[in-house]
Amino acid sequence: MRSQNVDRKSGMNMEIRKKKFLEMSSTARINAMRASSPTHIKSHPLALHHNVQQPSALDMFEQITNASKGKQIVMFMDYDGTLSPIVDDPDRAFMSDAMRATVRKLATCFPTAIVTGRCRDKVYSFVRLAELYYAGSHGMDIKGPSKNSKGGEAILFQPATQYLPIINEVYKALLVVTKDTPGATVENNKFCLSVHFRRVHENKWAELAKQVGSVLEAYPEFRLTQGRKVFEIRPTIKWDKGKALEFLLESLGYANCADVYPIYIGDDRTDEDAFKVLREMGQGSGILVSKIPKDTNASYLLQEPSEVMAFLRRLVDWKRLSLRKQFMLKSRLEGVKMSLPI
Ligand SMILES: [Mg+2]
């Protein structure tokens, strides 16, 4: 049961990566954990030159909207660190009312999806907007709004259901091994697990990595990746945020379509899969949320959630203005038609 339907090739690659991480010296492991979990952003030598590699999406706003002309924009956004600030307690990663109001307006202009590593129900409890698409557990739990534009049934797609019993087993084992590491929390995201070390003292990071590794050695069908102060544990099926993006575009009727312009905004390593899909499609824009330059497949940068909100607001204003212009042009043409002699 445990190893059924696992992509062997991908599983093996992931296993090598996991093994490599587990075999690192504790100094190398700490450096890897530090690199993906920047805490001293202000002291970073390149912090003031965040757009060295990619330009700011705010500076390039016109270029982005010009590229989308005549196409349907579809919005995809990660949650933690993108719509909400990264906070010490992951259970309190609330989004501001202003951000919620902005996302609500955005969804009246474009189909809008939240793509997150979190459990879908959990992220919904933070966002509370029924009109959005939600892809939880790194895209392994996708649900559309109950009232969709096509009037059909809500989309529901869960490609990793077979792993549910074993995920609960791994969850319990992680709770046991991490219970003596102060500040460590294990989050059950339904189809994947997170071990947060936002509140763990740096001198305990190596120990925590060892504890997590010791559990995963017994479960080759799971892969371990690292995000911002979090270990992510998920099945080795070939499914990620990039696949979720493709699935949602297809569900919206834009499979292999040139008339769509997806915009994906995210801050995490797991968002790179989606940026890569956009690059390969040669359509849309990937926007990385980061204060420091990173090796990324995204085309643009935004520094933090406040800049994300500013960008989303500009998109709403731009769309409303273009709709108003279209309406006025139509009215003028109808006026001209009416004034013509029959
Ligand atoms: Mg994030």
UniProtKB/TrEMBL annotation:
It comes from the Eukaryota. The keyword Kinase does not apply. Pfam families: Trehalose_PPase. It catalyses: alpha,alpha-trehalose 6-phosphate + H2O = alpha,alpha-trehalose + phosphate. Its EC number is 3.1.3.12. Pathway: Glycan biosynthesis; trehalose biosynthesis. InterPro entries: HAD-like_sf, HAD-SF_hydro_IIB, HAD_sf, OTSB-like, Trehalose_PPase. GO terms for molecular function: trehalose-phosphatase activity. Signal peptide: none annotated. Its cofactor is a divalent metal cation. Keywords: Hydrolase, Stress response. Belongs to the trehalose phosphatase family. Removes the phosphate from trehalose 6-phosphate to produce free trehalose. Trehalose accumulation in plant may improve abiotic stress tolerance. This is Trehalose 6-phosphate phosphatase. It comes from Salvia splendens (Scarlet sage).
